[in-house]
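Re: beginner question about structure tokens

> Can someone show what the tokenized structure looks like for a real chain? I only ever see the sequence side.

Sure, here's an example I had lying around. Input first:
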Amino acid sequence: MLQYAALIPFFPLAGFIILGLLNKRLPKNMAAIIACGMLLISFGLALGVFMNISGKSQEVQLAPWINVGSFSASFTFLLDPLSSIFLMIITGVGFLIHVYSIGYMHDDEKHNIFFAYLNLFIFFMLVLVLGSSYLLMFVGWEGVGLCSYLLIGFWFKTKAYNDAAKKAFIMNRIGDLGFLLGIILLFITFGSSDYHTVFTKANGMMSGDNPMITIITLLLFVGAMGKSAQIPLYTWLPDAMAGPTPVSALIHAATMVTAGIYMVARSGILYALSPVSMLVVAIVGIVTAVFAATIALTQNDIKKVLAYSTVSQLGYMFLGLGVGAFSASVFHVMTHAFFKALLFLAAGSVIHGLSGEQDIRHMGGLRKKMPITHWTFFIATFAIAGIPPLSGFFSKDEILGQAFSAGMVFWVLGVIGSMMTSFYMFRLLFLTFYGTYRGDEHKVHAHESPKVMTIPLIILAILSTIGGFVGVPASLGGGANFDKFLEPVFHDAYAKMLLMEHSQILSEVTLMCITVAAAAISIFVAWSMYIKKKTVPVSEGTRLPFLQNLSYHKYYVDEIYSALITKPLDKISGFLGNVVDNKFIDGIVNSSGKLTNWVSGLMRFVQTGNVDFYLLAMVIGIALIIFLKLM
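And the corresponding structure tokens:
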């Protein structure tokens, strides 16, 4: 089965080519069947790879690529436990999102090209995780950036959506510059960008004794901060909600934002050699997790709440990577893919059922009108809140447990962020599905979505419920199978960090009880406010308390960026365009032309047609040549 792994990204690419070339000539149903069918085949192949993967990595060579001097690179795919898990997430969750899109995008005039873009998005993400070198990873890395631009701005007739797409593209270019510089320094340091060569040579180094490794890993992390929306490069992700909801689900759950996590996890041995970089990753992760959670507390757009939730959850994943919990972070990537895809698709079902309404202040009482959407959203909310035995409990608590071993501050902040997660998610659940309907029933008639949309919700709800059992820790009687599966990938990194055994069983169980109790308190507070007291967020324009106002306006970060970066750059660009380019550079070019015309205008008077004058000029010229020669 492993020899067919090269076909996994081929089928989504084929789907993109077919849909792109035929486009409007294909009926909508046929286009959807082609897009979903291609991804289903890829999922079947990915499942085969996952079932047959061994502890050791295996490379599949496809074709030569670059061969310049001492540098060479080829199209080679790497198959190991880490890449196989990401293959399952990308193709499995991606397939469900494709199926859901059949119903959600059915009436869109660009239905076929939408599915073409989805297939292309999946293709580039598969290249990213399958590549056996940083250079090939960078190809997929840039590809998903392009696809995010195309899909976020899919409804390009609206200026705000175009602006959101450009913001995502440009902000990611900032991170990508750091990533590219990191790859260049990797080649300078190790003579290659190939994982095997780099990691083998890195394994022979001593931890903390090479400043170049710290510089490389920090530059790589800049790239991860852009793709995975960490402070300060996070503001593009909430605005990416401008795209269709299936795009939001794909970006947040199965593709783009997980790229940064994958890259840092794949580079685990390099980060293990730099305690400074590990600390930076952990600090940025936990600060982002808490900061984004405080913003989500006050948002009223159903998709914006989920967007800031993603930023926060990604922060937890980076916290795990920073404290050396590599497998726990990957575990959280998987469980997060289940419940976050479910949350976005359920939110899309609500928006679809309410004819485009996204403001939770105009919702309420939908649990009876949209029962499947309600119960699936209900399950996902409990999962992300970390309530046992749902999937989010096992993955998040494993990260927090190892954060406790690394430092009490990380754990305390993690628990605070977890409490806020429980509060804002149950606030969202209660305001959307409980109480009475606060919208205009004469204009909007809430209804359940069609089966093509609800069946993916049900499947994701099942995965969100049972997905965590593959990683039950030993302290709860499990075999920590997920950790054992990934152990060959991270063995060298763990050895470099000289990790000791985790906390004693009593300590782990105690920590779990504390985090669950904290989440339960937050749920009770949300219930008291939005069910018992029937609190409704105030209408737009109402004066808010200072801290609440800061959170609601997202701490004015976008405005600060605009004042300190965007507007000064606009002025500099205007000066360069209007003064330097139009007046100085164009002035030089235009003056050269005018000078030529002036000189030629004078020279034309020499052409008189008088033979005597020409003979005189020739004699004078010969005399000058002789004179100059004799000088």
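Each token stands for a local structural state, so reading them left to right follows the chain. The two ends are 88 Å apart (CA to CA).
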